[in-house]
Amino acid sequence: MDHVEWMWPAVELAALRLGRRLGVPVPASQPHRWSFVHIVPSVGPDDEAAIRAGRVHSDTGRSFRVVHWEFEADRLEGYDHDLGHVRVRHAEAADEAELLAVLREWRLPPTGFRCSWDAVGPV
Description:
A hairpin with a 6-residue loop joins strand 1 and strand 2. It contains 3 helices and 5 strands. 22% of the residues lie in helices and 27% in strands.
């Protein structure tokens, strides 16, 4: 794979550092299912203080949780999308370097991820 595939686009890297969730749709195990991977940055006291002050806090030292979810497609409409969901796999990454290592292992280039407002899927 090309080296550029394993570099974060600037907007998505900034979003991660600001504590924003990123997501990417991935192939599901069956046609009637829908699947995606979320990256969930850690939130700490500095983030909570920034929120109280009406700001956001950028942190290059965040840890991350990476979760692969699968849902029954017909349950995504309405409010019961959690019914029929399955956590396929998950990983913890202590920092941005470990996050890239997880994505390489899962064969998910960072260039495919989008900020939560652009990503599809329940959040």
